[in-house]
């Protein structure tokens, strides 16, 4: 067994065989250490077959009732570029087929096993989630051209899979990305496109930063003015926009089918100017504030002493929780510079009580540790490791988003036109070369990692792609693969092979000079 890239020193590469007409034929077994799967699987062995398994017009995707949805999804992802029929059937498995089977052993739901040999491909897992992740690996084992949405000629060698045995399972349960739709608004089409791009790398959380000073982007039944007024502009004074309840349902449904949980955030008690501009009673003056393209941070605040404030907090989180199928609600809590410590603690606790009352798990930026919260919650580390350490000691679970490595809104280098740079320049090396354990938080408290994309400078889907890719791929590997399996040079080698994959998907990624992207 070969565990991980750094350990792959074994030259399994090429077996020489003699064919019947006595010419020496190379059995072109792919060397295991030439594989380019990201995140790197827990273990990859050379399989027993010779040559490759070719997907042909005869290849079928064999399923059972339990695996049918994943089989259909896999077939649908391979058909456009290949043009192969890839019929999905519950018939008996034949040689050359790709079979998806749910087993009843004890592997966790996200784990999968994939065996490719002369008889076909067999993907097994204990739950559909594992089959979905195994399908992502299987697609990455095919030539890069498979990623396109238009029919292409088969590449040299055809649509072929290497003979491998993969056993895989994630290191962390929380492998997230965050998109700020408040500073600039992004619609359903853009959000679901981002989901597609993320799940290909086994990311399983999308945190939506839905409210901030510059906009309120989620329609709540009792508060039409939050979107009717607070959703009408953005950080540049542009047209803004918001997600209707129906839009939000489309996103959460789409995500759920791809095994991704949406984590909605309403940020409070700071970062609330869009709410203050929409609801007069939340202001000490009794009159709405003006909404405009503010670029300051943490200067707005809810006022704990106003009679409207507590009912507002309770109602907003109760209604958001009622619309949200996933188990988490994020209450923000960052940078409340205009809120007294006592008021901060009382308002954060009120939000947490409403979220728990609705049966959900509260999540907040690391500052919420200062609210002295009783009972379970999740803290998101971004700036001050000591706050994260303190939250963990108090029993919280911690998500690691250290700004200097995980922030997708920071520039790659001095030449990057988009993005901010307060946390430094982050190219693909810095985005990869860190570990969740670095901050000194107790390992048992860490539930995973998340890459936030703040949108002060991000206005188009291409901007999202350019800042997220390829850095978010590194975070996906940090969240999924074990540290012992990770090495920067091997990662950069594999990443280079993902250039054509991203390009085939039309993703406008940053061609970092640290990576050999091959011939252009
Ligand atoms: C800090 S990270 C913020 C955001 C900004 C971001 C810009 C955090 C919890 N708050 O309000 O958009 O920096 O990088």
Report on the structure:
The protein has 520 residues and is of the alpha/beta class. It folds into 2 domains: 5-168, Chitobiase, domain 2, CATH 3.30.379.10; 174-310 and 318-490, Glycosidases (TIM Barrel). 29% of the residues lie in helices and 19% in strands. The strands form 5 sheets. An 8-stranded parallel beta barrel has the order 12-13-16-17-18-19-20-21, surrounded by 7 helices. Strands 3-11-8-9-7-5-6 form a 7-stranded mixed β-sheet, covered by helices on one side. α1 runs parallel beside α2 (128-141) and α3 packs parallel to α5. The protein is elongated. The two termini are 35 Å apart. The protein binds ligand TNX. Ligand TNX binds at residues 297, 334-335, 365, 382, 407, 409, 420, 454, 456.
Supply the key terms.
single chain, Chitobiase, domain 2, binds ligand TNX, seven-stranded mixed sheet, disordered N terminus, 14 helices, TIM Barrel, 520 residues, 2 domains
- What's the alpha carbon Rg, rounded to whole Å? 24 Å
The total beta strand count reads: 21
| Poorly predicted sequence stretches spanning 5 or more consecutive residues | 1-27
| Outline type | elongated
If helices are DSSP runs of H or I spanning 4 or more residues, what is the number of helices?
Answer: 14
Attached small molecules: ligand TNX
Beta fraction? 15-25%
Q: What is the fold named in CATH at topology level of the largest domain?
A: TIM Barrel
**CATH homologous superfamily (4th level) name of the largest domain:** Glycosidases
- CATH architecture title of the largest domain: Alpha-Beta Barrel
Largest sheet data? 8 strands, parallel, barrel
Strand order of the largest sheet: 12-13-16-17-18-19-20-21
Helix content: 25-40%
CATH class of the largest domain: Alpha Beta
Query: Ends: how far apart?
Result: 35 Å
Class derived from helix and strand content: alpha/beta
């Amino acid at each position: 067994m070969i565990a991980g890239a750094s350990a792959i020193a074994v030259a399994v590469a090429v077996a020489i065989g003699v064919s019947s007409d006595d010419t020496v034929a190379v059995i072109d077994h792919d060397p295991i250490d030439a594989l380019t799967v990201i995140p790197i699987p827990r273990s990859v062995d050379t399989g027993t077959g010779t040559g490759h398994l070719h997907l042909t017009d005869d290849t079928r995707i064999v399923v059972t009732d339990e695996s049918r949805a994943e089989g259909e999804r896999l077939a649908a992802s391979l058909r456009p570029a290949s043009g192969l029929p890839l019929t999905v059937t519950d018939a008996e498995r034949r040689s050359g087929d790709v079979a998806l089977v749910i087993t009843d052993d004890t592997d966790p739901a996200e784990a999968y096993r994939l065996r490719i040999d002369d008889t076909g491909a067999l993907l097994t897992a204990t739950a559909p989630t594992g089959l979905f992740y195994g399908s992502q690996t299987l697609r990455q084992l095919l030539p890069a051209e498979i990623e396109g949405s238009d029919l292409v000629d088969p590449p040299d060698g055809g649509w072929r899979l290497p003979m491998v045995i993969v056993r895989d399972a994630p290191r962390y349960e929380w492998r997230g990305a965050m998109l700020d739709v408040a500073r600039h608004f992004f619609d359903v089409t853009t959000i679901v496109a981002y989901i597609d791009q993320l799940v290909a790398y086994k990311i399983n959380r999308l945190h939506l930063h839905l409210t901030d000073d510059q906009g309120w982007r989620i329609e709540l039944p009792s508060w039409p003015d939050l979107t009717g007024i607070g959703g009408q502009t953005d950080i540049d004074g542009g047209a803004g926009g918001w997600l209707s309840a129906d839009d939000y349902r489309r996103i959460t449904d789409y995500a759920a089918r791809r095994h991704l949980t949406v984590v909605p955030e309403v940020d409070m008690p700071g970062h609330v100017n869009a709410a203050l501009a929409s609801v007069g009673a939340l202001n000490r003056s009794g009159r709405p504030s003006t909404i405009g393209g503010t670029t300051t941070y943490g200067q707005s605040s809810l006022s704990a002493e106003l009679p409207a404030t507590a009912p507002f907090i309770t109602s907003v989180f109760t209604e958001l929780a009622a619309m949200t199928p996933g188990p988490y609600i994020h209450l923000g809590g960052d940078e409340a510079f205009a809120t007294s410590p006592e008021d901060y603690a009382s308002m954060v606790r009120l939000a947490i009580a409403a979220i728990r009352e609705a049966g959900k798990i509260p999540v907040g930026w690391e500052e919420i540790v200062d609210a002295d919260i009783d009972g379970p919650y999740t803290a998101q580390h971004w700036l001050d490791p000591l706050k994260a350490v303190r939250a963990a000691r108090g029993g919280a679970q911690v998500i690691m988003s250290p700004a200097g490595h995980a922030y997708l809104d920071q520039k790659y280098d001095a030449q990057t036109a988009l993005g901010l740079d307060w946390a430094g320049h982050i190219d693909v090396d810095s985005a990869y070369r860190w570990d969740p354990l670095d901050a000194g938080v107790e390992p048992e408290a860490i539930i995973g990692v998340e890459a936030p994309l703040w949108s002060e400078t991000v206005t188009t889907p291409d901007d999202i792609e350019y800042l997220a890719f390829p850095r978010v791929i590194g975070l996906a590997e940090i969240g999924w693969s074990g540290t012992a399996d990770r090495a920067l040079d091997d990662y950069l080698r594999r990443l280079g092979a993902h250039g054509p994959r991203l390009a085939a998907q039309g993703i406008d990624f940053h061609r970092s000079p640290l990576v050999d992207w091959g011939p252009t």
